[in-house]
Amino acid sequence: MKIALINENSQAAKNELVYNTLKAVVEPMGHTVVNYGMYCADDPASLTYVQNGILAATLLNSGAADFVITGCGTGEGAMLACNSFPAVLCGHIESPLDAYLFSQVNDGNCVALPFAENFGWGGELNLQYIFEKLFCAPAGGGYPKERVVPEQRNKKILDEVKKVTHTDMVTILQNLDRELVKGAFAGKNFKDYFFKDCKCDKIAAAVKEIIG
Questions:
Q1: C-alpha distances in angstroms, 201 versus 11, 16, 64, 78, 208?
Q2: Are 49 and 21 in contact (CB under 8 A)?
Q3: pLDDT score at 116
Q4: For residue 169, which of 210, 196, 206, 212 has the smallest C-alpha distance?
Q5: Which pLDDT score, from 0 to 100, does residue 156 have?
Q6: Residue 212: C-alpha distances to residues 90, 177, 200, 207, 208 (Å)
Q7: What burial class does residue 128 get, using C-beta atoms within 10 Å of its C-beta: 0-12 exposed, 13-18 middle, 19+ buried?
Q8: Is the bond preceding 144 in cis, omega lying within 30 degrees of 0?
Q9: What is the pTM of this model?
Q10: Per-residue confidence at 90, pLDDT binned at 50, 70, 90?
């Protein structure tokens, strides 16, 4: 699985910590981490949590990423932004228990973490334990086990609802404020990472037209 990491401006200084913690947990499981930044507090390609949502949705809808790790100060803004897009099911995760239950019950493809709120002594350990529980078992396995069938059924229903309540990603990218979207794709490694991994020609073409 290809896991993308995205940090916004208020918590960009934690990118290296989050990236290294994530890699240490998931690479031994056979997953790959792609760091889309922001890479540091003064990274010139600054992202808001709204742009985190745009970037996350573009990666997931195009197949350039299978899962996205993102967040902001509280994690709430990033979660709301991500869930405003099609084919993105983002959970707000504060604890390892949240991570495990979101993976097993909701079978989502994105999480938003609070990188400032309650992120004090032991914060990196909480991150480690969250990532361990998030990816410790195949998603959608259900919890408790007697609830597996209705939980999997509800996930499929929600996926179908989102297909009706959202338009397609290409149309969204074309209709959003152009500068807002260009800013979401302004990271120094975006072009190299995205176009190498993108599996949707239509989204790739839309992104190329936007960034020039």
A1: 33, 31, 11, 27, 10
A2: no
A3: 97
A4: 206
A5: 96
A6: 30, 15, 18, 8, 6
A7: middle
A8: yes
A9: 0.96
A10: very high
